[in-house]
Amino acid sequence: MELLDYLKLANANKGAPNDGGKKKIKINLITNFTDEILQKILKGFLLSQGIYPEIFAVPYKQYYLHLKNRQSALYQNPADVTFILFDANPYLKSSFTSDEQHFLELLTDVKEYCLQTTAPVIMTSFLIPYLGAYGNLFELSPLFILIQQANQKLKDLSQEIKNLYIFDINALAQQQGERHIRDFRGLYAFDIPFNNDFLLALTQEWSSYIRALLGQTKKCIVLDLDNTLWGGVVGETGPLGIALGPDYPGLAYQNFQHALLDLYNRGIILAINSKNNPEDVSEVFAQNPHMILKENHFAAIRLNWEDKAKNMIEIAQEINIGLDSLVFIDDDPVNRGLVRSMLPDVAVPELPPAPEHYVPTLYSLNVFNQFSLTEEDWQKAKMYADERQRKNILYSTKNLKDYIAALNIEIIIEKNNRAAIGRLSQLTIKTNQFNLTTKRYSEKEIEQLIDDGALIFSGNISDKFGDYGKTIIAVLKPINRDVIDLDTFLMSCRVMGRGVEQKFMHYLARELDRCGFGQLTAAFTPTQKNKPAKDFLSSLGFNQTNQDNEIIHYSIGLPDLISNAQHFSQSVAIKEKSL
């Protein structure tokens, strides 16, 4: 879609969606310029992504009043996310271009606003003015120095405030070109400092935060091989005849593999979907010295002559993630078209014909962004790749009980670990399948839950092949001295089906009983994705008490839960970690 399409889409959707198919999200927008066009572009782009935004924009030039007044609409209409963009425009004299005190007061107001909301606040850094009266001595410019200092203070503030995240607008300006992002007629006539193309690029970056907030970040890249990971057809040229470094075009393919390895190292899963003979591909991995990616980097491999859409479904099932978590990269437009038409949830980017454009295309996808990277993220792709070794045990054992026993699973349980708040928040945002209520919590909201007396238990899970990381959590809220509510219970799909969830629940029941509680309430809120969690409560003996719209409410006495859960997964070991 083009810019005009997004504007038309925004204009055509004046009210809330009637079909209920779009996800709704409330957005607060704070700027220091005329932002009606920015609002429309943001709305139109999100609508094209299946997201309906309700945008409250602080009125023109009233950001000071709204930030300082807790009775203002900004404070009284809490949003799911806030975007802040202030432009210290070097082409227009203002308090932003000459007054350090203005920046200090502004950052104080932003800090106070962040403290009053638990939702994420995304603030852009201030655009650094490299062009100006000082020419090549721009570092001596008072404005350059002022903006640099303001950005450092903003960065320091984000380290202090958990729900404040900084988007570096200077990186985006560098990509677009500082000379090409400004609209000087718009600046002087309407106080619109940026052209529409830059506002669209900014909107696309902002939307990645919203997708992350909604749990829509992509998790896995599924790759073709011939003329994608290397040049040529291996079945015709042999493992050493393919184009793969050190000269062109082989160097381009090799660097594409380097880029994929970088994504793997930050936690993006890799898989293969290729029409090839398995023996030919194995020879490439074993014999070609220019291969950067190795066979053990891939969590799933499909080498056959089936249609690629069918393979994509099998890959998603094997890895145990949704189709909407996949990105499919293939040089063949026919295969791309097939997957697009049959599996619309899969992201299928256009791959340019020349391999030197593969890396820029990969980097421009903008579908892997997260609020932060945790220790588990660095290891996640390897964890999924290790899963292929676990499946070898499954194939060699006679039943599930023997399989679980052979894995030597261990859960190390922590309670109210504030050092892990980033990971706990991330799990609530990203976990969709085994998730009873799919409630999403920001880092600040997790911290607030602990401060308000909630008990948050988390489990680090490992087995003989490696560490899954922190992959299961429960949020429990006391109702009274006898009753406690299971507000949230979720587990990463990586550990489903191994008895971990039952063992974890058995531990919780014993711990809550020891704390003096007698009854546990819980609920299941059905979504399109959490069917694996549908029967979990009833399987442990929870009794349905009532149904509120689609939400099913349950209750159980803790002695009964202890008795029911202890029969599960005797081979899963539990350890407690003191904090």
Helix content, binned percent: 40-55%
User: Which regions are unreliable across 5 or more consecutive residues at pLDDT < 50?
Assistant: none
Provide the domain count. 3
Task: Note the beta-strand portion.
Answer: 15-25%
Q: Identify the CATH homologous superfamily of the largest domain.
A: SGNH hydrolase
Radius of gyration (CA) equals 26 Å
CATH T-level fold name of the largest domain: Rossmann fold
Q: Name the shape in a single word.
A: globular
Tally of individual helices: 22
In the CATH classification, which architecture of the largest domain applies? 3-Layer(aba) Sandwich
* Structural category: alpha/beta
Average pLDDT, rounded to a whole number, is 91
> Biggest β-sheet, characterized?
9 strands, mixed
The top-level CATH class of the largest domain is Alpha Beta
How many beta-strand runs? 18
Give the end-to-end Cα distance, rounded to a whole number of Å: 51 Å
